[in-house]
Amino acid sequence: MTPDLPKSLSDLPVTAPKWVGKPVNRIEDPMLVTGRVEFIDNLTMPGMLHCAILHSPYPHAKINGIDVTAAESLPGVVAIVTGEDAERWSRVGYTSPEGWGTHCMATDKVRFAGEPVAAVAAVSRYVAEDALELIDVDYEPLPVIVDAHAALEPDSPRIFEEHDSNVMYQRDFKWGDVDGAFAAADHTYTERFRWHRVGANPIETFGVISQWNPISETLTCHGSFQTPAFMALGRAAMHRLPTNKVRAIGQPHGGSFGGKGGGRGIDITALLSRKAGGQPVKWIEDRLEYLSAGGGQAWDRFYEASLAVNDDGTVTGLRVKLLDDLGATGEGFGATGAAKPMASFTGCYAIPNAEYDLTIVATNKLPASPYRGMGPPPHNFVLEQMMDIAARDLGVDPAEFRCRNFIPSDQFPYTIASGNEYDSGDYDAAMKKLLEMADYDALRAEQEQARSEGRLRGIGIVSTIEPGVFDWNAYAVIGQKGVGVPEGVSVSIGNTGKIIVRVGFPLEGQGQYTVAAQLLADYFAVDIGDVEVVAQDSLSAPTNFGPGGSRLAVALTGAVLGAAGKIRDKFVRVAAKLFEVQPEDIELMDGKLRVRGVAGGAQLTVGQAAGILIHRTDLLPDGMEPGAEATFVWSSPDRVPPDDDGRVKSYLTAAYACHLVVVDVDPETGKTEILKYVIVDDCGTRLNPANVEGMIDGAVAQGVGAALLEEYVYDEDGQLLTGTFMDYLLPTIHEVPATEKAALVTPSPFTPLGAKGAGESAIHTTPAAIMCAINDALLPLATRATEVPATPNRLWTLLQAAKQP
Amino acid sequence: MKPAQFDYADPRSVEDAVALLQQHGADAKILAGGQSLVPLLNMRLARPAVIIDVGKLRDLDYIRDDGDALVIGALTTQRSVERSELVAREHPLLAATTRYIAHPQIRNRGTFGGSIAHADPAAECPALAVALDMQITVVGPGGARVIAAADFFVTYLTTSLEQDEILTDVRVPKLTPGTGWSIQEVARRHGDFAMAGAICTLTLERGRCAAARIALFGVGAVPVRAPEAEQTIIGQEPNAALFEEAGARASAEISEPLADIHGSSEFRRHLAGVMTQRALTEAFSRAEAR
Amino acid sequence: MTAKRDVSLTVNGVAYSASVEPRMTLVDLLRGELGLTGTHVGCEHGVCGACTILLNGQAVRSCIMLAVQADGAELMTVEGLSEDGQLHPIQQAFVGQRGLQCGFCTPGFLMSVYELLQHNPAPGDDEIKEALGGELCRCTGYQSILRSVRDAAARLRGEVPAAATEGEA
After folding, report:
1. pLDDT in tens, A298-350
2. For residue A122, how many other CB atoms are within 10 A of its CB?
3. A299: which of A227, B124, B222, C155 is 20 to 30 A away, CA to CA?
4. CA-to-CA distance for B244 and B108, rounded, in angstroms?
5. CATH number of the domain located at residue range(s) A40-142+205-253+261-293 in this protein
6. Distance from CA of C163 to the nearest CA of B (A)
7. H-assigned helices in A73-224
8. Do A9-37+485-634 and A376-469+653-803 share a fold?
9. Please, which residues 65-94 of chain C have a Cβ atom closer than 8 Å to chain A?
């Protein structure tokens, strides 16, 4: 039974919410600022060994043999595993698309530089790394494919011999009459774009301690898991274990952004523990491993996009052709990033006809991973450039051009061409607010002045959707079957009114424990300090997924309010019996159960009601289960599998944002400086506005990185050239601009309290905005930056070419 | 990412350090602040059998005014140089240059002598050494000798220090009256190694450029002077066109700059010219103001 | 095996001694041998700053320093900031201004801020950026960290803390 969940803050059983909707400080923070949080590497266990992994130096090579005898005889080494052990005790990993997987360590051959080949468990990490140097692997190098286009050639060497090409996936989605729209259009525009690999790079890398119990044949893993239950499910399949024999314990962790990775690390340490007779084995991925062999690389893309536009500026068709280089395998859900753009394919615009010609190809690079945004950020970059290209050609201001094509605010819920439904919004209002805040006309005047002085000043204005609350059905087309992503919590209240909420996900940084506490504090009118949040392991927690796809705040709200509602219903029946009235005459308000409409009458506090449920079962209504606790599992309503054209109502919410960026490009050095950054966003009801603002600021920084600094570079031999933080450049405090922000609030009609998913945030928007600004700056030179990141060298090269007669 | 094993010695005198260097030869590596060496140890890219930690040679930590020069002990941290009132007063170019080195947390450990002995061609201190003709004192089994900066840097991360010699101090000539200075660099991020940089000094006498020095970094295997560019302006009345020409000369006269993922050879060559032009422009304005 | 060396040092006012391999990094000594796990490891090549501690009052990277180099030194780590369960004003400011999200980089930031404010009780934004340019944060985008440092400086100067979190009524 689904209880009625409060649709807005005013539906909460409190006269005025004291916590929800307020920027209350996070309950997580005092522990974090004192260094007392148990990150995985802080954990140690009796008999614990330390793992080091031997990674292949070759991107593509046959393995003719591995000799570990010298390493085995090094004092302090307890166990060594190779692909042979992986074959004996585990399976080939699950992949999407299906059939492009390997064991956790190479067996017959290696497919990317960095692929695990062997691993050592020893008394210290130092000794384990010493032992790696004593392992002798006989590699026979094979031809290397790094170029995605070359990988498509019929005579290209194969990454997987069992497939007759390197094409992992190909499908041309067409929605509406695309050909007709392009044939009938007054104008069509086509451009190619290149987005280079970027990735998550949380400051804490992945870590795990695995312990195999040879007696009970169970596997217990502590680790920095973004989604412990999901990780456990994968490990059970991998190690051929019943699902109730794998316990994943999620430690609080230092960020993930979808790119924590770690699947292979868990499997390898599990094998090592098994080989070591059950001693726990810790592996802390080091930064070099993270960069070259971890979960940190995403979105390696070649785009060709076309827009069909009428004289009046109406966009009638969008074509996007994507060649996505997924790297060596389909592990780790990297391909979801190619499917997700369908959830917001046409952005904020009412474009009735669209085509997505999607090819995913394998190369000898690290398998791609998810990363915050899960795929749309490059797509948005492409779409927004195309909007600017059309606007310029038609002589229409880019902001005005977007406004002409916005989905009108009275058309929600609105189904886009690719099938997803947007819940609510007022894009026009957001754009107007943005231009007003930025003093747009003055900015254009300043730009004119700057241009007359020979400076390259640009203004970028974009608007994007953030699809929120993911559903597996969004990824069904590339092999992730399933509908619904259940998130469950259990809530219990003690006889003094203190509350415990048990969740299935560890601390990760988004402040969700605070949100859970805010909700319960208001629901039962207690202090936020009276709510304790407890993370449970995968064998203890209710059905849950955890953070991902901008979902958790909404899903958690549904779960917490559902559980609270079930407890309230029990309280109401207890009070009704006590006061000898009907349950419908009782209400919970401001933490008291009282007879509706009777002032000053008898009332029960939450603590008293809980106390009766625990200690006075004689007072309970007939048949009532004792205890003031309830579990509720929430999932998005009304989701179904995609139709034959791949159209699907997938993500439940559609937050949106308009960004305005002003940049100067130094024509002599090619360096881009961000001068001004203005944001208007709308993610519905803000459960904790400070959380939302923090997400925006953080995602802007990641967007700045993607647009200007970050890039995984491989040479033509398949070797990673950006294997350290000296070369993979995260933005520092010097590179990230201050932002001016304003919020609109258009509640979602589909979610509890009207909140929308907001965790991915500005990563959807910032790269597009900065690139639009750069291209606006380059406009007088009649050149265009279509490659991301826009590094000084790239921009300078463009400027040089533009100067040539 | 843990260092391989090594033996460790922490001598208490320069003589002991030299004796250890003699004993271990090419197997030994000197550890000063460690800000370049320890990352290489962690990555096992450096594999010395013996680490000679000179950190306890505290008498190599000083900044002394020696009339027409400052003398800086090899173990003086970059941070000490940056914060020194003596340096601020007597050598603003040295102070300014130090602030370009990485970040404060690195400068708190990194030593002035270490950054010169490490000889990274994209680093600031070696370029300053070349720009100012610093005199580098090294001590070996036969005693001390002085090496001019121009003769010190041999190639990438390689100097004319013998295997059994240790750098003990650096003599940093002060700028003469009427001399303006500038350091300009362009890096991907603030604090990163430069894609290209220029350090310039320019001395004005009666409105003409009496002397000029241009040292470039990040554009070759060693920091280099740009003599043709210097000759372009010496004897001339400085102006914008002249600086542009000098920049073009500097850009043209350097040998093939090393390319990496952040900048092609061609781009770095171009940047060297831009940095030269900007540095000369600023140095000139400082010279005029003096 | 290489001979171990004895290292004696003071951390947060407590004297420790340990016998370590010369190759052990200082952060591994602090975390692994002394159990002071508040200092974190993010890159082990001196770029991210998560491992920043104070060595004789100066902010340094403990991942690119050998434990033997710290012999005789006085160290301070994040564990030494709060006293008697009371957050240090810098910590209070970071909580109040949302200067953290996942909190993994935070100990390094706090120690660098501590050094900054010792030398400069009223830093401008440029000075704050200069002090923190070598500390990477992947969550906050740094804007709330800037606010936190301004607020921490004000608290340490004895001024009234700024309104708690941005946007709070």
Report:
1. 999 999 999 999 999 999 999 999 999 999 999 999 999 999 999 999 999 99
2. 27
3. A227
4. 37
5. 3.90.1170.50
6. 30
7. 83-89, 125-132, 148-152, 178-184
8. yes
9. 77-79, 81-82, 87, 91, 94
